[in-house]
Amino acid sequence: MTPTLAIDFGTSNTVLAVWNPATGQADTVRLPAISLPPLDGAPPLVPSALYLEGPTDAQVVVGQAARDRLTASGDRQRFFQAFKRGIVSDGPGFTPSLDGRDVTPQRLGALYLRAVLGAFRQVGQSPSQLVVTAPVQAFEPYMAWLRGVLAEDLDCSVHVLDEPTAAAIGYGIRQSDLPILVVDFGGGTLDVSLVRMAETPLPQSVSQTASLPGVSRQATVLGKAGCDLGGEDIDTWLVDDFLASQGSHPGAHLIDLPTLRGLAERLKIRLSQALEADFVFFDPETARTLRRHYHRETFEELLERRDFFVRLQATLDAVLREGARHGVMAADIGAVLLVGGTTLIPAVARSVRQRFPRDRVHVHAPFEAVAHGAAAALEGVQLQDHLYHGYGVRYWDPQARKHAYQPLLLPGQVYPMTDCIELTLQASRAGQPAIELIIGEMAPPEDGPSEVVFEGGRLVAAPANRPETTILPLNASPEGRTIARLEPPGQPGTDRIRVQFRVDADRHLRLSVFDMLTERLLMNDQPVVRLR
Fold first, then answer.
1. What is the rounded distance in angstroms from the CA atom of residue 277 to the CA atom of residue 279?
2. More confident residue, 207 or 532
3. If you write DSSP's letter for every residue of 493-527 in order, what string do you get?
4. Is it the case that residue 463 has pLDDT exceeding 60?
C-alpha cells in the first residue's frame, strides 16, 4: 500500500512522516544520507540545506549531505540554508547569482523539496497522497508556489495545511469543543493559532479511521497571527554579540560567517540545556582562538535587548483578541501546545507560562507534532478555516453623498460555506443595460492603543478611538464588476436580479445571478475574487 506522506518544510529542518494504518498513527521517516544521524533519541530531522554542485538543477545535494559537501569543498558560495524564509516573505530581497543564473529562494525551495521527494522514492515508496504544511502568515503566492512545485512531477493529490492546525492534530487533542492555543516557533517564523477541536460521530456508512474509529475530528481555526522571528534571528544576534565582544563586526569575518552561525546555533542549544557555555572560534586570518563565556542570564538579556519577548507577547495578544471576538477568553483555553525548536529555550516556555496555568502548557513533541498531525489530517479529520478580513458590497449613500459598503461576510466567517448569502437588486435608472457589483475587503484598523469595552456580554480589548475601516476594492475593473447584462434593460422600482454568494474551499467568492424578469440564470456559481 502506498502511504500518505506529510512534509513539514521548516526554515532550519524538515520532517517527513507517513501514516501507518496498522498502528493508527504517524511514523517519522528517516532518509539515508540526508537525515541527521540519530543522537540521544532525537528524531531524524532533514536539515533544510542545499548545495549546488553545478549549473544544472540536477546537480543538487540536500540535507545532511549538503552540510557534508560544504565541509569537504569549503565552497560557501554554493551552500544555501534558511531559504524558506525568503519564500514566505512578500518583500524584495537580495538575489545572488551563481553559474550565470539567479539563485532565488523559490528556486532553492523547489530544488530542495523535489530532491527530498526523490530521496523518499529511493527508499522504495511513492506517496498516494501528499500533505504539506505552510506557515499561517504565508500569503497566496506562497501557497500557489508550493502546490505548483509539488504537483509538477507527482502523480498524486496534493494538500496544503497550515502548521498550527497540524500541530493541534499531532498532539492528539481530542477533547470535545476544547479551545487550544498552538505556538509554533521554529527557525524562521513564529506562528500562533487558536483552534477548537471537536468530535462528531460518523454514520455507519462512512469508512472509519484506524486512529479514532467512528469519530470525525474537526478543527476550527478561531484566530491566527504570525511574524518573521525565529531561531535564525537568535543565531545572527549571537554572532553579532560575539564579534562585538572581540572588537570586530560581522563584515570583518564574512568568509567565516556560516561557521560562526553554526557555532552560535550550538551555543544556543547548550544554553537551553545548561546554565553556561563558551562560544569558541578559531580565526584562520589571525591564527587566534576567540572565546567568550556566556551565562543563560546573559543570553536572555540579549534576547530582551532585541525585543524578542515583546514580539512574542504581541503575537499572543493579537490571537487572544481574535479569540475574544469568538467568545473565547484566555481562561477558556484548555491546552497550550509549544512546537518548533525555539520553544526549547527555557525563557520561551517561561514567557508563555506567565499567561496560562503551568499545567496547560505542553512542550513535548516540539519537532514531530506538525508532520504527524499533517499525516493524520487526511485520515478522517475534517478541517474548517475562517476568513481573516470582512467583505462588503459597495452602494451609494445619498445622505452622505458618497459610496459606502454594506457588510456581506464578517471576519471569522467559516469556509467552505454550506449555505449561500442572498441579495435582491434593482436597477438604479431607466434603461439600465447592466448591473455592477463591487466587492470590497474591509481591512481592520491597524493595531494601536486599546481600551476595554463591554461587547456581547464580555469585556473585550478594542482599539481606542476606533479609526475608520480601510476598504480595498477587489473587482473594480469594468469587466470584473459587471455581474449581469440586462435584456431587456432594467427599470427602477422593481426587483430585477437575485444574487447568491458563497465561499468555496479555496477561498473563492462565487456568485450565482438569476434574472427575475426573464427567469434566466445569468451566472452559475462563478468565482469572482479570491478572499483572504
1. 7
2. 532
3. TSEEEEEEEEE-TT-EEEEEEEETTTTEEEEEEEE
4. no
